[in-house]
Design goal:
This protein is of the alpha/beta class and 505 residues long. The chain is built from 16 helices and 17 strands. The N and C termini lie far apart (57 Å). The structure holds zinc ion.
Length: 505
């Protein structure tokens, strides 16, 4: 043992020290070289990302307010126009509307103004701009698609940092955009893992997130699957204190009736009624009656059925070429490549295994329509939401399909139109200044050639739109659509999504 010890502690010679130093030196050089290489790669990657984001910004600068000549002015006099005010079921025939600084200032038979740009709208109809209460926005191109379809405000329900930036630019009129509202990231319970969700592990964390989302400028809290009572209670309690409304995708960890809380201003998705309280039993009419009763008693809870997105499952099942449809060219390329394709593949392979799925999905959609009919009879407030932006549900265009489904469920044209105007604006106090044509309201307006109360489809083709009093003519709206077609911003979208994954969770 002693021998080994002496060998181990043998004094190093001068030569061996030099040798060791040389090796260390060599190793240091290699490490330095590797570090340098890594830094260069990171640098190159950052430059590449910056260039991609810049290119993306450049290619959407057609939405910059200063690039749209007609949008520089936000004071107008509209003459000879028939107004559908939406605060009552009537048409105000042959009126004048004076818009000053983006606000409807006066509505009368005759208005005298000095030097204000005038728009003669003889034989045309003026409706409040539509509001889509359930969207998922992925890039700025979509803002133009909403506008071209008459949607002048959106509620984005899957908030990420990029949405705060869009909101800011839209609010200070740097870009032409529907008025932009966004929830924070989706709040879920501890075990509902998904890269897009924010998992809450305990009530304390829940409260902290609500406080921080409010502070950072998110408009609403979005609750999602997997919130148990304890955590959900904490979210609600803090939301009350922080004065921020909740939008609920029902959680399966609490009874459905739990969501009729006065802090929860809207409940999303009709299919969740079937999946949760009915437990997929389409024939459980007693349970359905209970849900309908709960909804009708709860006057503060608006319901956003999102019939279109569910019906699109059926569309995927009956059309094997759906991803090649012209309309799909308006989808964000990242979503198209990942989500649209994954959804299509999933349903397609289900169909190949069991073709009865087609009929089952169709039956459920038909039941959705019946549920809307029942809820409508009980006086439930609907708000129009499409779930556009994911799967094959196209931003902007989808709202007309959603409205058509409400009509199919027995709502009159006026009632249908309410879901995307006054009902939507009444849901949250921060939206109260829109949704009708009245003095003092934001001038978000649609001009159409025929009366939407007689023919809803005319809303698909507005000839002019006013967004906060700024005029967008048909050419601008068509240009928005053209620019959004087949866009090539895959990397920019991926970077922004990555930003969400890295910094928001
Ligand atoms: Zn959604």
């Amino acid at each position: 043992m002693r021998f080994v010890f002496t060998k181990l502690v043998a004094k190093p010679t001068q030569k061996s020290i030099y040798k060791t130093l040389a090796i260390i030196n060599l190793n240091m050089k290699t490490v330095k070289r590797i570090l340098k290489f890594i830094l260069v790669i990171i640098g190159a990657l950052l430059v590449f990302i910056a260039v991609m984001l810049l290119v993306d910004k450049q290619s959407t600068n057609y939405l910059n307010s200063k690039n749209i000549k007609s949008a520089n002015n936000n004071s107008f006099l509209i003459t000879n126009v028939n107004i559908i005010p939406m605060n009552q079921d009537t048409v105000l025939v042959n009126k004048m509307v004076y818009i000053k600084d983006g606000i409807s200032q006066k509505i009368a038979d005759r208005i005298e103004t000095n030097g204000v740009e005038t728009l003669d709208a003889k034989n045309k109809y003026l409706t409040p701009g539509l509001i889509d209460m359930h969207v998922h926005v992925w890039d700025r191109y979509e803002l133009g698609l909403y506008l071209s379809n008459g949607v002048t405000a959106v509620r984005n329900l899957w908030g990420m940092p990029m949405h705060l930036r869009i909101k800011e630019k839209a609010n200070n009129n740097e870009i032409i955009s529907p008025i932009f509202f966004t929830t924070g990231p989706k709040l879920t319970g501890p075990e509902f893992i998904g890269d897009d969700n924010l998992n809450l592990n305990n009530p304390h964390e829940a409260k902290e997130k609500v406080i921080s989302f409010k502070k950072r400028g998110y408009d609403f809290i979005k609750t999602y699957y997997g919130l148990d009572k304890e955590i959900f209670d904490a979210v609600i309690e803090q939301a009350k204190v922080s004065n921020i409304d909740i939008v609920a995708h029902p959680s399966q960890k609490v009874p459905y009736s739990y969501h009729f809380n006065s802090q929860i201003k809207s409940i999303e998705h009709v299919e969740e009624i079937i999946q949760q309280p009915l437990n997929y039993n389409l024939l459980d009419t007693l349970k359905l009656k209970e849900v309908v009763n709960d909804f009708s008693k709860s006057k503060h809870s608006a319901f956003s059925p999102t019939l279109t997105v569910y019906n699109n499952i059926y569309q995927m099942l009956i059309n094997d070429n759906i991803l090649e449809l012209e309309q799909l060219q308006f989808m964000n390329p990242l979503i198209k490549r990942i989500d649209s394709k994954a959804q299509f593949d999933r349903w397609h392979s289900t169909k190949l295994r069991d073709s009865s799925i087609i009929k089952a999905i169709k039956n459920q959609h038909d039941l959705h329509i019946k549920i809307i009919k029942k809820l409508h009879k009980e006086g439930v407030t609907f708000i129009c939401g499409t779930d556009a932006g994911i799967g094959v549900t196209i931003p902007g265009f989808s709202i007309h399909q959603e409205l058509a489904f409400y009509k199919e469920a027995g709502l009159s044209n006026y009632e249908v139109l309410k879901t995307a105007t006054i009902n939507a604006s009444k849901t949250h106090s921060i939206m109260n200044n829109m949704g009708t044509i009245e003095v003092g309201k934001i001038a978000n307006l649609l001009l159409t050639d025929s009366n939407p109360l007689l023919e809803l489809s005319t809303l698909k083709n507005p000839s002019t739109i006013f967004i906060k009093g700024r005029k967008l003519n048909k050419d601008s709206l068509e240009n928005f659509e053209e620019k959004a077609r087949n866009r090539k911003n895959l990397i920019a979208s991926a970077v922004r999504y990555l930003e969400h994954l890295i910094f928001e969770k």
